[in-house]
Each structure stands twice: as C-alpha cells, then as structure tokens.
C-alpha cells in the first residue's frame, strides 16, 4: 500500500493576525489544504490519504473535505489527530495506519506539508519510485544563494561550498516499517536534534535518496508567501 500523509498541524504563527492555521487560509477561492489534497487525489498509485491536524481542527478539516472534495474521492481521505511536533505527527499518522489497515513490509508513506499546494505529479511519482528502490527520499532543490552559518547569530562560523548545498522541500517518502524502527531507536538527545523525518535516517547513518523538487513547490508560511501563491495560481489559470 502507498499512503500519503498530509501534515496539517501548523498553527501559522508567522502568518500574522489570522484566526485559523495557515493551511485553512484561501488561495483563490479554496483553502490551501484543499489544493494540496487535490494534487494527491489525482495520483492513482496512492491508496489512502491521511490528514494529520490538531485535535481542535479535526472537525473543521472534515467539513472542508465534505464541502470541496467530490463525494467519490472522499473515501480515500481520513483525518486524525497530530502530535506535539512534526515527527510525532508523522508517527501519529502511522499509528492510525497501523490500527486501521496494518502495515506490511513494502508499505510506503509520502509525507507532505499541507501548505505546499503546488506539488507536481512528477515529484510525487519520483518519490514513490525512489522510496521503493532506496527506502527513503527527500525532495530538494539546489541552493542558488550562498549559505552562511552563524552559531551565535552574530558572526560567521563557516560558508559551506554552495555546490554541496540543497534546500529541503517535501515530500519526504519512506518505507513505513523502516521509519518506525529508526524512530523507536532514537534516544532523547537524538530526538531533540530532529528538524524533519529525513534526519531520522541521517542520524542513524541510513542513506536518503535525493529527488529533484521545483522552485515553485513553495511552503506558504508568511503573508508574502500567500501573495506569491495567489500569483502562481492565477498564472496556472492563465496558462490553461
């Protein structure tokens, strides 16, 4: 089975004065999360989509799905409660899969930010293919700007070679049994170091295959991003 897990646990603190998490804000006439779900529903390789969201927003998420997603597609989507952080939310979705469907050796989970609505069919398929072959993937784009490291946020500590640097996006895709095994083997100090799921594999010395992303596969986290997303959406409409 191939599962897509849509991570909709963000509270949207960088979005400014809004009364709801950023994934529920509109681009065009529909919520961001609906645009994202529609991209995954178009891929017939995906068997089930799990949306992970804060407990207090579960019913709102369900209501949006009922309002915007065609009835015959709603059966592919399930909503469950997220965890205290990103990786705990991923594991919460996996526990939902375990409890409701069981987990087989070849099952794969595609984890994706709800606020990256411009994910392409090609990126999704590349993630699936590479996860089947390698067990773990991370979607990235080359770092076009020079990366500067500053530990104290005041002075430069190092300037890494730009040709070796990439900017991480999502999806990140994994064989489910492997990510569960590695996550459960982490100690408390290792869990503190985690910034995303791919780092679980990196900490344990496991290989993660790079998948080419796209510069327009943006994450909507600020008011500027929201304006850019609306412009991208309008551009898509004009191209059709």
Please give a structural write-up.
The chain has 240 residues and is of the alpha/beta class. The chain has a single domain (2-138, 168-239), classed as Spore Coat Polysaccharide Biosynthesis Protein SpsA, Chain A. 39% of the residues lie in helices and 20% in strands. The strands form two sheets. The protein has a seven-stranded mixed sheet with strand order 5-4-1-6-8-7-9, sandwiched between helices. β2 and β3 (30-31) form a beta hairpin. The two termini are 33 Å apart. The mean pLDDT is 93. Belongs to the IspD/TarI cytidylyltransferase family. TarI subfamily. Catalyzes the transfer of the cytidylyl group of CTP to D-ribitol 5-phosphate. Its EC number is 2.7.7.40. One of its GO terms (molecular function) is D-ribitol-5-phosphate cytidylyltransferase activity.
A few lines on this structure:
This protein is an alpha/beta fold. Helix content is 39%, strand content 20%. The protein is built from nine helices and nine strands.
């Amino acid at each position: 089975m191939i599962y897509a897990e849509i991570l909709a646990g963000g509270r949207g603190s960088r979005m400014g004065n809004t009364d709801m998490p950023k994934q529920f804000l509109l681009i065009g006439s529909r919520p961001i999360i609906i645009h994202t779900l529609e991209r995954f529903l178009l891929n017939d390789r995906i068997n089930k989509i799990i949306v992970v969201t804060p407990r207090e927003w579960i019913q709102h998420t369900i209501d949006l799905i009922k309002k915007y997603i065609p009835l015959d597609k709603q059966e592919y989507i399930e909503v469950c409660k997220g965890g205290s952080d990103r990786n705990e939310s991923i594991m919460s979705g996996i526990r939902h899969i375990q409890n409701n469907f069981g987990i087989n050796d070849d099952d794969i989970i595609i984890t994706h930010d709800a606020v990256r609505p411009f994910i392409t069919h090609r990126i999704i398929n590349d993630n699936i293919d590479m996860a089947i072959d390698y067990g773990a993937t991370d979607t990235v784009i080359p770092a076009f700007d020079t990366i500067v490291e500053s530990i104290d946020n005041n002075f430069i500590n190092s300037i890494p070679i730009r040709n070796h640097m990439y900017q991480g996006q999502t999806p990140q895709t994994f064989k489910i049994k492997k990510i569960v095994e590695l996550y459960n083997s982490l100690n408390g100090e290792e869990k503190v170091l985690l910034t995303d799921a791919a780092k679980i594999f990196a900490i344990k010395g496991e290989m993660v295959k790079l998948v080419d992303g796209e510069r327009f596969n943006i994450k909507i986290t600020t008011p500027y991003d929201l304006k850019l997303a609306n412009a991208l959406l309008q551009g898509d409409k004009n191209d059709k």
